[in-house]
Structures are given as structure tokens and as C-alpha cells.
Design brief:
Elements (H helix, E strand, L loop, with lengths): L37 H15 L7 E5 L3 H4 L9 E4 L5 H11 L4 E7 H7 L1 H10 L3 E7 L2 E2 L5 E2 L22 H8 L3 E6 L3 H13 L3 E7 L15 H7 E3 L1 E6 L14 E5 L5 E6 L9 H13 L3 E8 L6 H5 L11 H4 L3 H11 L1
Parallel strand pairs: 1-2, 1-3, 3-4, 4-8, 7-8, 9-13
Antiparallel strand pairs: 5-6, 7-13, 10-12, 11-12
The protein binds thiamine diphosphate (TPP), iron/sulfur cluster and magnesium ion.
Thiamine diphosphate binds next to helix 2, helix 4 and strand 5.
InterPro entries: 2-oxoacid:Fd_oxidoreductase, THDP-binding, TPP_enzyme_TPP-bd
Keywords: Oxidoreductase
Protein name: 2-oxoacid:ferredoxin oxidoreductase subunit beta
């Protein structure tokens, strides 16, 4: 039923952003996910983030794998480029698209099954190569689409709907992203839009590999007592490291009244991430401190959310490969094939 389009009629008084679009212009088809699925809340946060950032939908490419989570790009940014790849293969297809056309903003949407099981290798290499993208995992601890088997992010000891106990150790994708070299790492909760929207905005504006693990309860198969990814569990065990505001580079920069409580992190594009630390000892620009802090809280059974790490000066794979500023897919024949004389010179240099 994913073909159901929303009516295109807009109320004439709907508020528009600076590039002339209403929020409705960032929506997609009507969702066919279960009512109350956390993934729908993430779609709503994405709509809000892109609208607030004044990004024209045609500048965005959204790619996904397979799963309920990977279906969601059909439900937002209906006017953007989209590609639903094979299970676990979103990162490599996105890497190829990004290398061919660096002018688009890349959004990778995946699930915990898609990224922590079959796609674990793909996830790892996109992070370590610094592919510029906002990589979002909608993490419910189960394979929702295939009826609720434990995924690799399910905590040891957690219970399935049918009462089975998971004995395997969990994969923590945010911790892995930090270890692999991602330059923006956050964790959010689908039920906390106030925290999630600025986290997403920061990731979209980041200059390198940005990863967000979003805990997103599956109401059909993983929202019962005994699950550690349920709405109740996350609300009870959530520990926010920071509250962030995202300030776009076009807006006037204001100074907060209590400078001691606020850290401004300027991103490569000039925009500001304003971190209001709830814990004075937490510094979001120290990768190793973030790793230790996460482990400490994990041992206490707490789920840390917020911006865990950012390198504001991050660069990406294009910088590493020294590619041309002009997107490769826009180069003409003379630039792609500089002729026999140039080839001869090149070959001579290699002899
Ligand atoms: C190659 C391949 N193997 C297995 C499957 C079956 N399959 C479809 S979705 C899925 C898991 C999805 O889990 P997740 O990524 O967590 O998404 P969710 O539905 O939980 O949002 C699996 C195993 C498949 N489609 N393709
Ligand atoms: S099965 Fe779970 S993940 Fe899939 S749509 Fe339903 S609630 Fe969401
Ligand atoms: Mg899942």
C-alpha cells in the first residue's frame, strides 16, 4: 500500500521557509507502518529538520536498505532523489553516488538489522572512509519487517515478545562509529523530537561521516516488559549528555546569557552547534572521552543520548582522494579523456 500519495493541495496560509517551501513539501507518501512505530516519528523529525534548514528537496539523495526502517524514505522528502538498495548495501551504493556527484546532500536510512548484521562491513567502511553523509539507524533491536527476530543490537538478557531470552552480546553502532573514525556521532530517541531535530540538522550540515543511532521502539514486536528498546525502558533509562541547538549560518549569531554552561561548535559550513551540557564534565569534541563515558553509562544500564562526538573541522572522502570540485558526473569528454599526449606523459612518469 506504499503507493498512497497524500493530497497535493496546500492551504494557502501555510508557513513557508526561506526557499519558499512549506513543511508539506518535505513530506512523502502516507506511511503504511504500524500505528505508533518509532520510525514514523523519525520521518517527522527529518521533515522538520530539512524544512528548517531551508534545503530544497531536489538537493537531497536518500538511500536505504531493506526493512521497515528502510521503507521510510518513501514517507518523507517525496521530491528528493531516492534509491532503495539491497539489504545491508546502502553504504556502498551511497558511496558510489556521492563520488559521482558531490553536490547532493546524502541521507542514509537503515535499520539495526540492515546495518548491524548483513550490512556491518558496509557500515564500517563508510564510516572509516569518511563518506560525507547523514547515516541514520532506526534502532528497535529486532528485525521488524520479518516479524521480530532479535537483531544484533538487542541487549543480552532482553526478552522477545514470545519470551525467548537473548544470550548474545549487543553491537553498539554508535560506539563502533566512534572507534571507526566517524566525525559526528549522536544517539537519539524517536520519542524525543526536541533533541532529535537539532541532532539531525547538525548531521546534515556536517562535513564528513555523520552517524546517529536513533532508538525507535517497534510497537508490534519489541515494546513489552523485558525489552530494552521499548518506550517505557528508554524513558526510564535515558541519560542525556547534552541538549543541543542548531543555528544555521544565515541566522544572526546570538550570545547566551550563561557562557559557562554553553559550548558553541562551529561546523565547516559556518553553522553553529550550541551544546548546553547537562553534565559539566562531558566534552563532545573528545572522541576517547566519549567512548569511555558511553561504556561507563552502559555498565550502569543507562542509555546515553545527545551529541556524543563532533570534529567541527572534519573533511571527507573527496578531500582524501583529491577529486575535482566539479562533480565527476558533470565532467565533459575533454576533461575525462585528456588525449594521447597527456597519457604518454603520464606513462613516462611511471617508467
Ligand atoms: C539478502 C537478504 N537477506 C534477508 C532478507 C530478509 N530481511 C528483510 S528485512 C530484514 C531485517 C530488517 O531489520 P531492520 O534492518 O532492523 O529493520 P526493521 O524492520 O526492524 O526496521 C531481513 C532479515 C532480505 N530481504 N534480503
Ligand atoms: S513491525 Fe515494528 S518496525 Fe515494522 S512497522 Fe510495525 S512497529 Fe514499525
Ligand atoms: Mg530493526
Amino acid at each position: 500500500m506504499t503507493y498512497i500519495a497524500k493530497p497535493r493541495i496546500h492551504h494557502p496560509t501555510l508557513e513557508k521557509n526561506n526557499v519558499g517551501y512549506t513543511r508539506r513539501d518535505y513530506e512523502g507518501k502516507i506511511s503504511t507502518l504500524c500505528a505508533g512505530c518509532g520510525h514514523d516519528s523519525i520521518s517527522a523529525a527529518l521533515v522538520q529538520a530539512f524544512w528548517e534548514l531551508d534545503i530544497q528537496p531536489h538537493r537531497v539523495a536518500k538511500l536505504s536498505g531493506i526493512g521497515c526502517s528502510s521503507k521510510t524514505p518513501d514517507y518523507f522528502l517525496g521530491a528528493s532523489h531516492g534509491f532503495n538498495t539491497v539489504h545491508g548495501r546502502m553504504p556502498s551504493v551511497l558511496t558510489g553516488a556521492n563520488l559521482a556527484n558531490r553536490e547532493l546532500l546524502y541521507l542514509g536510512i537503515s535499520g539495526d538489522g540492515d546495518s548491524a548484521s548483513i550490512g556491518l562491513g558496509q557500515f564500517a567502511h563508510a564510516m572509516r572512509r569518511g563518506v560525507r553523509m547523514a547515516y541514520i539507524v532506526e534502532n528497535n533491536g529486532v528485525y521488524g519487517l520479518t516479524k521480530g527476530q532479535f537483531s544484533a543490537t538487542a541487549d543480552a538478557g532482553s526478552k522477545s515478545k514470545k519470551g525467548a531470552i537473548n544470550s548474545d552480546s549487543p553491537v553498539d553502532l554508535a560506539a563502533m562509529a566512534l572507534q571507526l573514525g566517524a566525525t559526528y556521532v549522536g544517539r537519539g530517541f524517536s520519542g524525543n523530537k526536541a533533541q532529535l531535530v537539532p541532532l539531525i540538522k547538525g548531521a546534515i550540515s556536517h562535513g564528513g561521516a555523520a552517524f546517529i543511532d536513533v532508538i525507535s521502539p517497534c510497537v508490534a514486536f519489541n515494546n513489552h516488559p523485558g525489552s530494552t528498546k521499548s518506550y517505557d525502558y528508554i524513558r526510564e533509562h535515558n541519560e542525556a549528555v547534552s541538549r543541543i541547538d542548531f543555528i544555521s549560518s544565515r541566522e544572526e549569531i546570538t550570545v547566551d546569557a550563561n557562557p559557562g554552561e554553553v559550548v558553541d561548535v562551529r561546523q565547516h559550513d559556518g553553522s553553529l552547534l550550541r551544546l548546553r551540557s547537562l553534565h559539566p564534565d562531558f566534552v563532545a569534541t573528545d572522541r576517547y572521552a566519549a567512548m569511555a563515558y558511553m561504556q561507563e553509562h552502559q555498565q550502569r544500564g543507562e542509555v546515553l543520548t545527545g551529541l556524543l562526538y563532533v570534529d567541527p573541522l572534519a573533511t571527507d572522502l573527496h578531500t582524501a582522494l583529491n577529486t575535482t570540485d566539479k562533480p565527476l558526473n558533470m565532467l565533459g569528454a575533454p576533461e575525462l579523456c585528456p588525449g594521447a599526449a597527456t597519457l604518454e606523459k603520464l606513462n613516462a612518469g611511471l617508467r
